[in-house]
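Case study.
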Amino acid sequence: MPVGAASWSFTEDDFGAITKSLERFLFDSNARCALLVDRTGQLVATVGEKPKFDPTAFATLTAADFSANDQLAKLIGENDFSSLFHQGEKESMYLADVARRVILVVLFDNRTTLGLVRLKMKATVDELAKFFEQVFKRGTGDGSQPNILAGADDEIDKLFQ
Amino acid sequence: MSMINYASREINCKIVYYGPGLGGKTTNLEHVYGKVSPDTRGKLISLATETERTLFFDFLPVDLGTIRGFKTRFHLYTVPGQVYYNASRKLILKGVDGIVFVADSQIERMEANQEAMQNLYDNMSEYGYDLTRMPFVIQYNKRDLPNAAPIRDLQAALNPGWEVADASRMRLMPDPFHAGEHLIEQLGSGEWVERAPYFDAVAVTGEGVFDTLKAVSKLVLKSLA
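After joint prediction, the assembly is written out as follows.
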């Protein structure tokens, strides 16, 4: 594995476990939609109302938002900001760090309140943090998933002919 | 940091275009955006200043095809070329899987190229990434300009090669893109060196843009195989 390309994988079981946890959170908090984005800007999962915007672009900007705010935190002597809140007239979003590897983004409107979202989010973040620590520990190489690209050199060559 | 998502059957990889200011990084992405079919690409996002200089990054997701039933999604990013935006440059490198260094071939930009290359090495090593051990290609852009430096001068300045330490790699490796040249070779001094693959380009007309993208994407996927 070349340095700099630490891969991780996300299985259907992972997806099931996360979806369950986030659906419960959405129900309890009355928020509309929750997205999980990894720190490099890749969208991991979306639960709840299907967003009307481009989720890939949204995920990238979320990661950039979080990274920029991390640097701002350092400038004022904090290690990081573990959560961010962006308030709009009708729609708002709350972002929380999960195990320093993933960001949980929650979209909500005036059917709920920031207080309730924040309150219910704490337990979900703790639960997800434990879960993702396991996922990242596993990487891609514990044998639980076959390396789908192993021996795919010919197919890769063909793709770029 | 590539992510294999078995739930959505996608392989996600991150490629960063790095290089000096006004060298053509954004132009590379714009050309890809214009040429690729809209079903296989997402939105081109630019966080730029009013004068169209990249402030934070440009971003374009593209699908390059399917391997073993998994969609290969590449997230292409550019960084701001200007050195005083180094904080945001560094952020973009986080979790990168492959790098394209877009050099400006003009003789007057030689120093800016070298500075950007040094800055790339420095920023990568701060993350603990080793540029010599990951997918990395160089694009010499603006080859159509009359003041473009000869390729051999650019190679000597920006891609002189790094020492090959692994004995199993000490064998002549031809450069598939340039007949008669080698990516790994032994110097007169007996030392084995490896260089990054390079491409000539005129990004405004699209020349060399896809060759560069294909080469780096292929290296990224092979690094996962």
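Observations recorded in class. The first helix of chain B runs from residue 25 to 35. The helical segments of chain B are 25-35, 86-93, 110-126, 151-158, 209-224. We will return to this complex in the next lecture.
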